[in-house]
Amino acid sequence: MTLTKRIIPCIDVDLDDEGNAAVYTGVNFEDLEYTGDPVEMAKKYNEAGADEFVFLDITASAEGRETMLHVVESIADEVFIPLTVGGGIRTREDVKETLRAGADKVSINTGALERPALIEEGAAAFGSQCIVISVDARRRFDEQGDHYVEVDGESCWFECTVKGGREGTDIDVISWAEEAEDRGAGELFVNSIDADGTKDGYDIPLTRAVCDTVSTPVIASSGCGGPEDMYEVFTEASADAGLAASIFHFGEYSIQETKEYLDERDVPVRLR
């Protein structure tokens, strides 16, 4: 049986000047602008027919603080679709507390890169289906990588970054995806620093390279400008899910419109 492709809205959450949780949207992980209240937006997407929902605390790792679990609890009370929460998760206890707050899955980036055994610990304790490894990838055109692809006539590799794309690691994304899968990750969440917020389409070479390497489900993220980009990442890169933010946040397209577009082109989706 063909598995349906998932459409997943995502909110990037930070603390505003008064210390309250707020959703922000930017380009290339910078120039963030206030977008809305996280709980209200989560409720809206739950009612709109989203397949899942992602909450990312975008500065928790960089600032060395814990995830906003009180906000997660409020969101979990409003959504009845799978909820993934990421940001600042570094230990098995962090995973436990995030799941206890109402998350169905946890998204881990920096914490897993710094200590890969966290993947195994989380999978063993709570099940692989709970452990999503997030990869913030950027292109590098040098000779330091392990795996190369052709992009616009040039050979490049993809580097894992941490702290919201602020720091490089010299770790090859494809090598890391293989290791994360071997250690028990249940899903890979592939973000493109280069495409983030541009609405120019997903990074197809990046997504395809990861999907061709692992059997673990892959969520494509960053760069979606409309349903046609979802179609491309599903058909050209074999992604299992498409994540988007701006096009949904600002009402350019609805979840339903996106699914109808895909359904008309024979991409299997869950329609209401």
From TrEMBL:
<dbReference type="InterPro" id="IPR050064">
    <property type="entry name" value="IGPS_HisA/HisF"/>
</dbReference>
<keyword id="KW-0368">Histidine biosynthesis</keyword>
<keyword id="KW-0028">Amino-acid biosynthesis</keyword>
<dbReference type="Pfam" id="PF00977">
    <property type="entry name" value="His_biosynth"/>
</dbReference>
<dbReference type="GO" id="GO:0016829">
    <property type="term" value="F:lyase activity"/>
</dbReference>
<dbReference type="InterPro" id="IPR006062">
    <property type="entry name" value="His_biosynth"/>
</dbReference>
<feature type="active site">
    <location>
        <position position="12"/>
    </location>
</feature>
<comment type="pathway">
    <text>Amino-acid biosynthesis; L-histidine biosynthesis; L-histidine from 5-phospho-alpha-D-ribose 1-diphosphate: step 5/9.</text>
</comment>
<dbReference type="InterPro" id="IPR013785">
    <property type="entry name" value="Aldolase_TIM"/>
</dbReference>
<dbReference type="GO" id="GO:0000107">
    <property type="term" value="F:imidazoleglycerol-phosphate synthase activity"/>
</dbReference>
<comment type="similarity">
    <text>Belongs to the HisA/HisF family.</text>
</comment>
<feature type="active site">
    <location>
        <position position="136"/>
    </location>
</feature>
<dbReference type="InterPro" id="IPR011060">
    <property type="entry name" value="RibuloseP-bd_barrel"/>
</dbReference>
<keyword id="KW-0456">Lyase</keyword>
<dbReference type="InterPro" id="IPR004651">
    <property type="entry name" value="HisF"/>
</dbReference>
<comment type="subunit">
    <text>Heterodimer of HisH and HisF.</text>
</comment>
<dbReference type="GO" id="GO:0005737">
    <property type="term" value="C:cytoplasm"/>
</dbReference>
<protein>
    <recommendedName>
        <fullName>Imidazole glycerol phosphate synthase subunit HisF</fullName>
        <ecNumber>4.3.2.10</ecNumber>
    </recommendedName>
</protein>
<comment type="function">
    <text>IGPS catalyzes the conversion of PRFAR and glutamine to IGP, AICAR and glutamate. The HisF subunit catalyzes the cyclization activity that produces IGP and AICAR from PRFAR using the ammonia provided by the HisH subunit.</text>
</comment>
<keyword id="KW-0963">Cytoplasm</keyword>
<dbReference type="GO" id="GO:0000105">
    <property type="term" value="P:L-histidine biosynthetic process"/>
</dbReference>
